[in-house]
Specification:
The complex is a heterotrimer of chains A (about 375), B (about 525) and C (about 475). By secondary structure, chain A is α/β, with parallel strands linked by helices. Chain A has two domains: about 200 residues, Rossmann fold (3-Layer(aba) Sandwich); about 160 residues. Chain A contains 13 helices and 16 strands. In chain A, the strands form three sheets. Chain A has a nine-stranded mixed sheet, sandwiched between helices. In chain A, strands 3-2-1-4-5 form a five-stranded parallel sheet, sandwiched between helices. In chain A, strands 6-7 form a two-stranded antiparallel sheet. In chain A, helix 3 packs parallel to helix 7, helix 5 crosses helix 6 and helix 8 packs across helix 9. Chain A starts with a strand and ends with a strand. In chain B, about 35% of the residues lie in helices and about 10% in strands. The two termini of chain B are about 50 Å apart. Chain C has three domains: about 50 residues, no CATH class; about 110 residues, Aspartate Aminotransferase, domain 1 (Alpha-Beta Complex); about 270 residues, Aspartate Aminotransferase, domain 2 (3-Layer(aba) Sandwich), CATH 3.40.640.10. Helix content of chain C is about 35%, strand content about 15%. Chain C has 14 helices and 15 strands. In chain C, strands 2-8-7-6-5-3-4 form a seven-stranded mixed sheet, with helices on both faces. In chain C, strands 11-12-15-14 form a four-stranded antiparallel sheet. In chain C, strands 1-13 form a two-stranded parallel sheet. In chain C, strand 11 and strand 12 form a beta hairpin. The longest helix of chain C is centred in the C-terminal third of the chain and has 38 residues. Chain C is globular. The chains are: A alpha/beta (about 375), B alpha/beta (about 525), C alpha/beta (about 475). At the B-C interface, helix 1, helix 2, helix 3, helix 4 and helix 5 of B face helix 1, helix 2, helix 3, helix 4 and helix 5 of C.
Chain lengths: ~375, ~525, ~475
């Protein structure tokens, strides 16, 4: 099995000492000056050590020195080292190059240690083409891209190799935020993209009541349910997400994954719209009904406030709560682990009005009622 | 666990071929009586009678095997099947794997059962009609309902019939166009979502809150579009919902009907009744709670019961009594029609009848109490095992079965419920049931030690699980490569059954694809 | 609230000392501490209104036997009833196998502990595939009517269309089940059932009428062979061609025991085949031996749209070993399908194994000979009966095992005739005057391999007397 290893040596250091923003030379210097300790190397080594039992069967590719080479050797691996860096002055560009180089070498999986910034860099390089798994680099983890800890990351990889039937690949959101600092920089927070992440799935067993199909199947059912219910001369605003995109895909429309698209009478009338444009579209035909088709984003399950800020309080109020179609797979709802769906529109009054329950379309002719909270 | 010795079990292993590979051309397994001389002479050969066009040209490529070897082959296959009488089957929770008394088998093998045609005149069916009628009265007493039908071929079928009855009920009131939604809960059996969908309804699933179905969620969604509620209680987690009659009250207030899926009735016999919780209809799995054997998934019976209000809609025919004669009543103009040919799996009805007759009211109480007691005992032993946890309703007891989680074991060792399932059978016990989808409880398993199992059985079972969990920590290869003492080894790649190019549902396709490879 | 002890052979832990031990270990005073979870208002306070137990096995057996003895059997009476449940010979080996404890009591044991069961099921699939001449077979469920409805729903999902054409001669009981599954017409996803005429002389499907009624709305054309009314529907190939030309699927409902001598629907391209397994080695059980099978093409869309369990042979880590796993093809819909998947549940597993044993015993020769003797017996009986004054055989002959006897010329009602036959200890054919009033006084007679020449003569003589 070919694995690419990328370590972001400074991941999370900034946040820890109260510094904001993504990595960079400046931040790194400041953080060190403030006494921050790198955590990525230790965590990487922990994960690699937990891979010992399949070490001989792994062909490891990595980048030099603190970007993986050192950690790999410390854990007893003999990696093929690609590319070049300036030690002590690593940049986001190095991560992007590393991912690209590894993709060119045909790796089956990219294992990385880092935070959301590193995840974004990898996304920039390879999008969702190759499965990716993150070892949390010291920051609070909200994304499904990461395993809970280095040992679990290792175990998932072992299973990926030894028992591929037990692994399914899921899409996990990559956010353009530093979760720790969300409050300070809401405006720039958006859904950046989706990475493909391996996930332990249920294996086959005798079933007298049917099986659990993959997300693609669930999406298909949800899409059909939405489409069957679509009415004429109604403006439908599609919020970001793989589930909403599954609907526009089914309609054979070129919707965007990360932006708000508008559809009327099964034709795309607007793509990747900002708040202003949405409001003006709605103003064009004020008597016309308008509905929002929205899904849940992020590991914590946000209905509004993560990645779909274009659906501002003004837009939501104009449309009206009763004209929201919330769609999500049942697996997504289960991944919230009994926590409610969250809303953070920026308008506390509006948020409060959502408290209670909301029906979520989870398949054809199937909805699940789910609690919503601020 | 206290000196319980796990057996050095090994399943019979015959390396048995597929029957299609067996036999020799010309061999016969059984001979068929030919047409008698007089007949053959009078009408001539069949090939001359049948129109050429309709005749089969190529004989079916069935194997040609002598009788002894057919018998041997299938006997060997039966030996490679654990069933529940040679291996303790505490593991299959929600299935209520109780002992099916052998005397019942003798009864249904009487000529008066096997050699009876359903369309015989009523006067010649009085025996079986009497049994069905009396069983109906027993189930009425147990549930508080006013009538039962046995046409339903299983539990899921009963939930479907309820959806059809719901449909008819609202149709008569001119509300079928409006009442399009059936509400069910997350832990209720998925057939309670699938069967109303097949009947044309949209389904709404209520979430659970700490293991209990969420009443507030129900209130938020119930409306004039509500046709019915389908729910189980206790649910598969074993948690009893004390507000169950609030649920029925809320749905009734909105004009909907309430159906009680009583697959999990074993702990409630004589303790609580569907009627008293406000339900309009319920069902029992006669092949679970009432001892009819499971038969590799059938024949079965999902006795469906209703209150007076829904009686007119029951499928035809009803079995009625006038004086001391039993009748088949087809004059039911408001019935939903047929859901099944004839009257249902009457052999299951006879077995359920005999079982209840041998138990009586005290017996049924004892069954329920023992189911509860056995479950508390198993729970007590299982919760001592590191890696096993019992999510939801902390501190609340469970009824007759429990859904556990091996997530902790997975986190610790990388092995979870599938691996333990593969290993446990090496100790000569039947594999456990995980859970219905979706897996709300991660890494689930759901045992149900019903009244058939002894204290020793329960201890043995818990010991086997404990041993497997121990091996997960100390001897990972043992777990990873399980099973070790079965008729076959670990399946190489389950994806083979998901890949259209590689799956082989029949031997002829297997041959074709093998030759391609 | 504890009661006195009730020790029972089926309840090992009913012994009070054992219960005490267990309660002590668990730390409960009584199981009623657990029942305290149930609010008082929901507790049943009385004693169940059930008869006192018949505790001993000897008395229990006698009690039930005495009730069952009030049934008369098709051994005591000469039986000519069919119409969905048929009297054939059940080989002793079949009953030996299905009465094996392991098969009788197995349920959902997983792939390893119950591999024998899965192995037998795979063999069932394989044997049926040869019999039907088609490549994929699902796990059977309730009965023919149910699987006919499911097949039509499958066709609707696969084609995306909402209409099904069925012959007017369709079995009314099966039609009722199909209607249930296709939903009342006012429901948004209902499948509309339309009827195709039949030739009044032969009974065969009127192909001209089929051509008229088939359209781009048709999901499936369903027909039965042999027909419910007994005649052989030999137009299978034409019906299939017509269905396919309109983009519809052909769903063939068959009596599998006829396929030793009749053309299997797979051979002329039927897309979905359904029927009942009961004739294949399952006792009648007063209608409790029914089992509906569905078979279809081994194509992804069929597998995906089939709501039933499907199993595949799979490899283990040891070369040459046979194991089995459920086929988990993405059970999704393709394109714009309106209907959700149906459900699956416990249904007729034991009969599946019984039929596998039956077909293994019979082999190709046995199935052929069986078909032949039935055809000959039927032809002989038809000749005998039609020689009676006023008696005719309706529709095209030859028939397979059932034929419609027209008594209109006798001036007697079938009900009268059957009552008189009953006194002679004969079960006459099913009275169809209710189901098909347009045919007048007709009865559906069933003759199989179990009937001897003596039996048939006896019928003839009895009818002679009754009709005179």
């Amino acid at each position: 099995m070919k694995i690419g290893l990328i370590v972001n040596p400074v991941a999370g250091m900034g946040g820890r000492v109260g510094l904001k923003g993504s990595d960079g030379e400046e931040i790194h210097k400041k953080a060190l000056a403030l006494g921050a300790q790198p955590v990525s190397p230790k965590r990487t080594i922990a994960a690699l050590e937990a891979l010992q039992e399949i070490r001989e069967e792994i062909q490891l590719f990595t980048y030099p020195k603190e970007m993986g080479g050192e950690e790999a050797e410390a854990a007893g691996f003999k990696p093929e080292v690609l590319g070049s860096i300036i030690s002590g002055k690593t940049r986001p560009e190095d991560t992007i190059l590393a991912a690209r180089d590894m993709a060119a070498r045909g790796v089956d999986l990219i294992l990385f240690t880092g935070g959301d910034g590193t995840a974004r860099n990898i996304y920039d390089a390879i999008a969702d083409k190759i499965p990716v798994l993150g070892i949390p680099g010291g920051v609070k983890i909200h994304s499904g891209v990461y395993a809970a800890n280095p040992e679990k990351a290792a175990r998932l990889i072992i299973e990926f190799m030894k028992n591929p039937a037990g692994i399914s690949l899921r899409s996990a959101e990559v956010m353009d935020i530093d979760e720790d600092l969300i409050r300070q920089d809401r405006v720039s927070a958006r859904l950046y993209g989706y990475l493909t992440v391996p996930h332990r799935k249920g294996l086959n067993q005798a079933s007298k009541a049917g099986s659990d199909p993959s997300d693609a199947v669930h999406h298909d059912g949800i899409a059909m349910e939405v489409i069957n219910g679509m009415e004429k001369d109604t403006l439908y605003l599609f919020a970001p997400g793989t589930t909403t995109k599954a609907v526009t895909d089914k309609l054979e429309l070129p919707g965007t994954l990360l932006g708000i698209d508008a559809v009327k009478n099964r034709i795309l009338v607007g793509k990747d719209l900002c708040e202003e444009r949405i409001l003006s579209l709605m103003a064009e035909n004020p008597k016309e009904p308008c509905k929002i088709i929205v899904t849940i984003i992020g590991k914590q399950g946000y209905l509004f406030g993560r990645g779909n800020q274009q659906l501002s309080p003004a837009v939501i109020r104009r449309v009206g709560k009763e004209n929201l179609l919330v769609i999500a797979t049942q697996n997504k709802l289960l991944s919230l682990e009994n926590e409610p769906i969250l809303v953070d529109t920026g308008d506390p009054e509006l948020d409060k009005s959502f408290e209670g329950y909301i029906p979520v379309i989870i398949g054809m002719g199937k909805r699940m009622v789910y609690p919503v909270s601020r | 666990m206290k000196g319980i010795k796990l057996r050095r079990y090994h399943a019979p292993k015959y390396d048995e071929p597929i029957i299609m590979e067996m036999g020799v051309k010309g061999q016969r397994g059984i001979l068929v009586p030919p047409a008698e001389k007089k007949i053959a002479e009078a009408v001539g050969p069949a090939a001359d009678i049948l129109p050429k066009k309709a005749q089969r040209q190529t004989p079916p490529r069935l194997p040609e095997i002598d009788q002894y070897h057919v018998l041997m082959h299938f006997l060997r296959l039966s030996q490679m099947t654990l069933g529940m009488e040679t291996g303790i089957d505490i593991g299959e929770g929600t299935c209520t794997m109780k002992y099916s008394p052998k005397v019942h088998e003798e009864l249904i093998r009487l000529s008066q059962m096997v050699d009876v045609h359903p369309l015989q005149p009523e006067s010649t069916l009085q025996g079986i009609l009497q049994i069905a009628h009396e069983l109906e009265s027993f189930l009425k007493a147990i549930s508080g309902m006013d009538a039962f039908t046995f046409q339903t071929g299983g539990g899921a079928h009963a939930t479907y019939v309820n959806a059809c009855v719901t449909r008819k009920y609202h149709q008569e009131r001119g509300e079928l166009g409006k009442r399009t939604e059936v509400i069910t809960t997350q832990f209720t059996h998925p057939c309670n979502a699938a069967t109303p969908a097949t009947a044309g309804f949209k389904v709404i699933i209520l979430p659970q809150k700490n293991g209990y179905p969420d009443l507030e969620a129900l209130k938020s969604i119930v409306s004039e579009r509500t046709a019915a509620l389908h729910m189980t209680n206790p649910e598969d987690t074993g948690i009893f919902n004390p507000l169950v009659d609030e649920f029925t009250r809320v749905v009734h207030a909105a004009g909907g009907l309430c159906f009680y899926d009583q697959a999990n009735a074993n702990g409630l016999l004589g303790i609580a009744r569907a009627r008293d919780a406000g339900f309009d209809a319920c069902h029992f799995n006669l092949h679970k709670t009432f001892s009819s054997p499971h038969g590799c998934e059938g024949p079965a019976a999902g006795a469906y019961g209703v209150t007076e209000k829904l009686l007119p809609y029951l499928p035809v025919p009803l079995i009625t009594k006038e004086g001391d004669k039993y009748h088949l009543d087809y004059d039911r103009p408001r019935s939903i029609g047929k859901v099944r040919s004839f009257y249902g799996n009457l052999e299951c009805i006879v077995k359920a009848y005999a079982w209840i007759r041998s138990m009586g009211p005290e017996g049924l109480r004892t069954v329920a109490e023992t189911a509860i007691l056995n479950n508390q005992y198993l729970d007590h032993l299982l919760l001592k095992i590191k890696g096993v946890s019992r999510p939801f309703a902390e501190g609340k007891p469970r009824f007759e079965q429990i859904r556990y989680s091996l997530q902790n074991l997975l986190d610790e060792t990388g092995f979870g419920t599938h691996e333990i399932q593969n290993r446990m059978v090496d100790f000569g016990i039947q594999s456990y049931w995980l859970s219905h989808h979706p897996f709300v409880v991660p890494e689930p398993f759901t045992p149900e030690p019903c009244e058939t199992y002894s204290k020793e059985d329960i201890e043995y079972w818990a010991t086997a699980i404990e041993q497997a969990c121990k091996e997960a920590r100390e001897n990972p290869d043992m777990i990873r490569n399980a099973p070790h003492s079965q008729a076959v080894h670990k399946i190489k790649d389950f994806n083979q059954a998901e890949d259209a190019d590689r799956w082989a549902i029949t031997w002829r396709v297997y041959q074709k694809k093998k030759n391609k490879r | 609230m504890e009661r006195k002890d009730f020790i029972h052979p089926y309840i090992p832990n009913s012994v009070p000392e054992v219960r005490e031990e267990m309660l002590k270990e668990v730390g409960l005073k009584s199981v009623y501490d657990v029942y305290a979870e149930i609010p008082d208002r929901l507790r049943f306070k009385g004693r169940l209104d059930l008869p006192e137990p018949i505790a001993s096995e000897a008395r229990l057996k006698r009690h039930v036997e005495e009730i069952l003895k009030k049934n008369s059997t098709c051994k005591e009476y000469l039986n000519f009833l069919g119409a969905g449940c048929w009297q054939h010979h059940v080989p002793a080996v079949v009953n030996e196998i299905i009465n094996r404890s392991e098969f009788l009591t197995a349920y959902c044991g997983a792939n390893y502990s119950d591999v024998g069961k899965y192995h037998a099921r795979f063999e069932f699939n394989s044997l049926m595939a040869e019999l039907l001449d088609i490549d994929a077979v699902a796990n059977p469920i309730y009965d023919w009517g149910d699987v006919a409805g499911r097949s039509i729903r499958m066709a609707s999902r696969i084609t995306g269309r909402n209409e099904a054409l069925v012959p007017k001669t369709i079995c009314p009981q099966r039609l009722a089940e199909i209607r249930q599954l296709c939903q009342p017409e006012e429901m948004s996803n209902a499948i509309k059932i339309r009827f195709v005429e039949f030739d009044p002389k032969t009974g065969l499907l009127d192909l001209e009428d089929l051509k008229r009624k088939i359209s781009d709305k048709t999901a499936a054309v369903y027909f039965e062979n042999p027909s419910y009314l007994g005649f052989i529907e030999e137009q299978g190939p034409e019906i299939t061609a017509l269905a396919h030309s309109a983009g519809a699927l052909c769903v063939a409902g068959v009596d599998p025991i006829s396929l030793g001598v009749l053309t299997p629907p797979g051979s002329f391209g039927a897309d979905i085949i359904c029927g009942d397994l009961q004739p294949l080695g399952i006792n009648m059980f007063a209608g409790g031996g029914q089992s509906g099978f569905i078979a279809f093409r081994d194509e992804e869309v069929y597998i995906a749209e089939c709501p039933l369990e499907i199993y595949s042979l799979v490899d283990t880590v040891v070369e040459g070993e046979y194991a089995f796993a459920e086929v988990r093809a993405e059970r999704t819909s393709y394109g714009m399908r309106d209907k959700g998947k149906d459900w699956v549940g416990t249904a007729s597993g034991l009969w599946t194994i019984g039929s596998a044993v039956y077909l293994s015993l019979m082999g190709p020769q046995g199935m052929k000979e069986l078909g032949e003797v039935i055809v000959q017996n039927v032809r002989y009986t038809e000749n005998l009966l039609s020689s009676l004054p006023g008696v005719k055989i309706k529709f095209k002959q030859p028939n397979f095992k059932e034929f419609l006897v027209d008594f209109n010329g006798t001036g007697k009602k079938v009900a009268e005739i059957n009552a008189a036959l009953l006194e002679k200890k004969i079960f006459g054919g099913k009275d169809l005057s209710g189901e098909f009033p347009e045919f007048g006084q007709t009865a559906l007679y069933c003759v199989t391999e179990i009937h001897t020449e003596e039996d048939l003569e006896r019928l003839y003589n009895a009818l002679s007397e009754v009709l005179s």
